[in-house]
Amino acid sequence: MIELEDLSKRYGDRLAVDHLSCTIRPGVVTGFLGPNGAGKSTTMRMMLDLDSPTGGTVRIDGKHYRQLHNPLRTVGALLDAKAVHGGRSAWNHLLCLARSNGIPRSRVGEVLDLVGLTPVARKRAKGFSLGMGQRLGIAAALLGDPRILMFDEPVNGLDPEGIHWIRTLMKSLAGQGRTVFVSSHLMSEMALTADHLIVIGQGRLLADTSMADFIARNARSFVLMRSPEQERLKDVLSGAGITAVPGASGALEVSGEDAAHLGELAARHRIVLHELSPQRASLEEAFMRLTAGSVEYHARTGTGG
């Protein structure tokens, strides 16, 4: 478990992390979201004592990171896949980490096989592609078989098979009762991976809730209804106290009602439906709505003058 209590980090006049408090619990994949410049990377660096907080504290299983004996056995982290000596082979890079933390040499081969790098284990890391570098970083995070795992943009550079693999791996690790904390800008992937979300903007906590609750609270869901008797359908809905608004291509949009109930209502009045489809809000829509006021860098459409 990771506990953040009133955590703050200031760089000159800029408050990068602003009195952030939350708990990352074991047994679920917790997603860490926020716009660029929100303070995600700074927060993760403070968790690992790579940056010192201006205020507040971080505890990992009740201790500061610096107090952990052989920390790779407790916390495995991928923050920067390029943090490797390019002249070392994948095998030697992991072996150095293993020896520094009292990890058996046999574990090196195990994690290389797990991430699919056994065929290139003796090749120098400087020749690795972006995806291969990511796999090596993931292997380093898994090396100590830790109870807590932190990943910053873990799917960066991975092909579709690799993305599916890391998603399945993170869910499996959480299923074993481990703490899994992952930051990513890929909303579609986060929606498939995370069970719980922590969202920050401009260094402040915006949400700490389950994936389902986050989407339900911050985005609109509705039922799309289309019929050759559209006006009659609208009258029937209105008579039942249900508000329908015009939607795309002449369809009706109904919010706050169950699709099955709407279908049964139309059937009772012998109204033919050509479409009755629940439209679920996406994580991306919910995220954009919640963080609209916290975006630091705004791009413009068009090419400019």
UniProtKB/TrEMBL annotation:
Matching entries from SMART domains are given as: AAA
What molecular functions are annotated in GO for this chain? ATP binding; ATP hydrolysis activity
Q: Supply the Pfam families for this chain.
A: ABC_tran (PF00005)
Which residues does the UniProt record annotate as the domain ABC transporter?
Answer: 2-227
Kindly state which keywords UniProt assigns to this record, in alphabetical order.
ATP-binding, Nucleotide-binding, Transport
Q: Which PANTHER family does the annotation name?
A: ABC TRANSPORTER, ATP-BINDING PROTEIN
Family (UniProt): Belongs to the ABC transporter superfamily.
Q: What protein does this entry describe?
A: ABC transporter domain-containing protein
What organism, scientifically named, is this protein from?
Streptomyces caatingaensis
